[in-house]
Structure formats: structure tokens, C-alpha cells
Amino acid sequence: METKISSFSCEDQLNLHIVENLDQTQLPASLQQMLSLAQTPEEQDILLLSTLTAASACVPNLYFRYGPTGKKYFANLQCFILAAAASGKGIANQALEMIRVIDKQYPMLIAGDSTLPAWYKALEARGGCGYMHESEGSVITDIWRTAAANYNTALRKAAEHEPISRNRCNSASEIPCPKLSMLLTGTFNQYRALVPSVENGYFSRLLTLVIRGSHPFCKSYVCSAGSQSAVPRVVGRQLLKVYEHLAFGPEREWSLTDSQKDRLGTHLETEYETLIALLGDNFHSAVIRMAVQIERIAMILSAMRIQNTDRVSDRLQTKLLCSDADYEAAEVIGNKLLLHMAAAYRMIDGESQELVPEIKTLDQRRVLYEQLKGTFERKELIKEAKLQGVSERTAERWNDKWQKEGIVIKMEHGKYKKVG
Question: Cα separation of 169 and 292, whole Å?
């Protein structure tokens, strides 16, 4: 079920669940298996994002091109699950168990409890590729405290596959195209240590899942006597086949179809405009970069469908195309994740320090319009906007949009008239 941001009601804005809005029968079988471990909608979303992030480390040599320069992007996701204590985020560790199966044969795990030089050395030793998983954000933030800015820069470059360099008195080296996948879970304070402000460039590159409330106690946790689920290991073996299918050969291009590209472009232009207007220009980069994240997610879903029965000749195809089912799922996931990032944005921006993502009412623009007189001056617009908690810049932007929509006309400098 597609979620259209611009048509959200107030009640919808508080429903940030992702999996509930997906047709799970259309997801790759291995992802469905991982989701079966969840007992709550929150656990479903945690498993969804953690599985996709871990799987993104298992898709070597597959890329897509984006932007006017045709820059190459690989599958690697970097994500933070932001939640209070005892909120159920520990289930994300199932994705780590999945990766351990692959790591036994092809080392890819990088310890989060690493100094920056050690982290760089481990990533370099793995050819610039790797997966970092840390379930306690404090481990990361504590050890990074003295070099947070340097880590922030390194992770931002890795997210864009930009070269990361190291220069010492006796040596110098460079990772030309880092491909790092990373999943962290932690509290708001731990998140903010990594992303100190909304203007920080890493904010828009780090996918964020906000989990509200506490995890309900389930007596089955006490009564259960079974062993750890075998599902992560089973899925890990499936991903191992995907990894081997892609790793031993040249790079291959994956792409959205032309119709999917048009849909994504239209989607960003029309559906996300409201969030930019409400949250300000600093959120614009998150909207733009979500296009890349949606393509990455769609490519991961496509890769998870690769079977070991695929012919060797299939590897020689010049380009793989995305299925409509995978694109539609990726678009829904991207829609919801953008709302999660909006919630984190407001928390960083100081409007809410609690794990309650109060996204501003999306019909606030309509309310402001209705409060204005038939003929109004700019100063009246600004005054009414401030009474509603809307910034001067946002009010002016909305007024410009009303003029483009033909519901306001400019009579003279600083004076306007409502139409209809």
C-alpha cells in the first residue's frame, strides 16, 4: 500500500510503522523468513531495516548510476535504530547472526569498538568493503568521543563511496571506493553524539528508524525453553550464495526501468514538497538523498532474489532491471523512513527531546491560508504565521506556492489577494 505524504492525516503521521504498509507476500523469501521472527510491529520494522542493512554488505559488484554525472552507487546502507531502553531493539542482532555465516568464509565484520586508525586499517584490509554492527550506541560514541568529527567525516565519505585517505609520517594510503554497511542501535543522546546538528552532512546520509515507547513484556520470554532460532543462519546461507554469485566476476549494472525512474522523480517532486516546506531548507538534502536510498533498497531486494540455480551466463548480462514489486516495496520503505528521519530531525532541532516524533500537521498550510483575509499584506501573513508557529521563511515559501497554484494573486508589492 503506497503511502502519500501529502495526503497524511494527523493520525497517519503518528503511525510510522513500515512493514504494516507492505505487501509481505511480494518480498524476497529470505526477508519474509527474517520478518517471521517478530512479535510486534516495532520488531518487524527493526528486523526489516537491520536485515536490509546487513544484506547490503552481501551485494558486491552490483551498482546503479545516479544524477547528471552518472555517479556509481553501490548497495551499502548506513542506519541507526533510535530507541529508548527496553524498546525491543535488541532483535536487530538477528541480522548480525545472519552475517556471521558469511564472515566465516569471507571476512567482512568490522568491530565498532575501534579507534579511527584501527577502523581504517580493518576496512583497508577488507578491500574497502565491510559490515559494522553495534547494538549499543554507547560503545561507538564513547570511543569516538575524542575524534567524533573525524569519524563523522569518514562515515559520510563511505556513504558516498568517496576516497578516504590516511597520512602518517612514515606512510600514506587511500581507500579509493569504500563500501561500508553499518547498523547501530542506541538512544537519542548516543545518536546525537554521532549527528550533532541537522546541518551536519551525515544526517541526510544516515537512515534513521525511530522506535517509540517501551517494548511490552511477554511471558513467553520466561516460559520458552527452545534454542536460538535457526532462521538467521538459514538466511545467512542463502545470502552466502548471493554473495558468491556476484563476487566472482566483473561489476554489473542494475537499474530502475524508465517508467520507475519517472515515477521516482515525480514522487520526490510532488509528495515530499510538503515536508520540505514544513521542516525547512535543512531537510532538503534528506529528501534528495532519499532517492539514492530508495534505489539502494530496491537493488538489495533484487539481489536477495538471486538463486544459486541461476546460470553462469546470467552473470554476463550487461544490465539487470528492477521488478515493479521491488520498486514499489522500496518506495513505501523510503516514504516511511523519510518520516522517521523527520522525527529525528525535530528531535535534534530541539523541538522534541523525547522519543515522540511529533511531525507538524501537514494541513497547516491550508489552515494558514484560511485564516488570512481576502486581501492581505505581507506583514499580516507573517503575523498570522508566527501565531501558528510557522517561520517567516516558510510562510513566504507557501505564499509563493499559492501564487503558482493560482489561489493567490499579487496585486502590488507586499499586497496579495486570495482567489477562490
Answer: 38
7 or 251, which is more confident? 251
- Contact by Cβ (8 Å): 374, 246: no
- Mean pLDDT, rounded, for 115-142: 84
Please report, for the chain, the start and end positions of each structural domain, with discontinuous segments joined by +: 5-348, 364-418
- Answer whether 86's CB lies under 8 Å from 40's CB: no
| Domain range 364-418, CATH class | mainly alpha
Contacts with 172 (C-beta within 8 Å, 6 or more apart), sequence order = 165, 166
CA dihedral 79, 85, 89, 93 (to 10 degrees): 90
Which pTM value belongs to this model?
0.79
Nearest to 154, CA basis, from 140, 142, 171, 139: 140
pLDDT at 231 over 60: yes
How far, in Å, CA of 326 to CA of 298, rounded? 5
Q: Are 45 and 17 in contact (CB under 8 A)?
A: yes
For the chain, the C-alpha Rg in angstroms (whole number) is 23
**Which are the contacts of 398, defined by CB distance < 8 A and separation ≥ 6?**
277, 365, 368, 369, 390
Quote the DSSP letter at residue 413.
T
C-alpha cell at position 254: 542494475
What kind of fold does domain 5-348 have according to CATH? Rossmann fold (3.40.50)
